[in-house]
Amino acid sequence: MLEKKFLSRLLAGVAVAAIGLSSAQAAEKLRFSHTDNPGGSRQAAAELFAEKVAEYTDGRYEVQIYPSGQLANDPKAIELLQLGGIDFTVSATGSYATHLPSLNLTAMPFLVDTYEQGWELYDNSEWLQGEFQKLPEKGFRVLSTWEAGFRSFTTNEPLTSPKDAESMKMRVFPNDMIRWSMEAIGFQTVVMPITDVYLAIQQGIVNGQENPVDTIKSLRFYEVAPNITLTRHVYSPLPLTVAEKTWQSFSEEDQAAVLKAATESAAFSRQLVQSSVDSQLTEMQEAGATVSVPEIGPFREAVQSVYAKAKDVYGAEAVDNILGDAAAIREALPAQN
Q1: Buried b (16+ CB within 10 A) or exposed e, 83-113
Q2: pTM here?
């Protein structure tokens, strides 16, 4: 009798284990590529996103995260989205402009002055939401907007004014608006993937780069370009995107679940980055970096030609629309001095 009971319990245990194994095997793998280091804010938000996708789909999907450009740099990751080679990526808005050039306009200098203004621009600008709605026909769609912050400079020589820029080579990513702004300030520009930048500065190919503080800290650019100049010249958040092929493969229930996970991870990302800037700057100073805030007026004046150039290339209507949205937001949500 005891043997029969033991055997019955053993078989029941095997059956439960088999069901668990079957359930685990049934989870469909989704690939998420990004270029941040494992310790960075993008990785932290990606881990939360993956956790929430699994939770809200009852384990039907498992998001596998590939940081540090393991699968692709930013432009290649977006191409892989279109081809269905990966399922998710998160990158600066300008990275997507190769496929929808009007998105370059989000990188016009000095559109907003605070995080709150930037969030309102990305969440509620009528013009920008209309542009995002064009992306599914390009092969991917925006789920939410994560945070990176405002772009500033790291250089291997002090940068106090546009005059100093005239002797420097500045790395830029493949984005016309950023390149125009850098050239208007006085830099010579060199286009290269972010994954090549550290070594390029170290070898003297370029004198520096410009990125948000969170990226400067995560990718350790301050080690090779220790002069951090806080111009905050471009608000540079990170749209989280999904391959349209992947999105269309989801049921309506799973689309809602993934969208919920994206929204919650965006809120987490925004809070994390905004609250971390001061401590990140302190850590970099303690490691030997010099942090300065220059007189911003000369930089603002230097880039005035960029707005006119943008109108020539993208049309006055589009430029006026985003400038108008940004101006209304700045007025409604004034910066606190």
Answers
A1: eebbbbbbbbbbbbbbbeebbbbbbbbbbbb
A2: 0.88
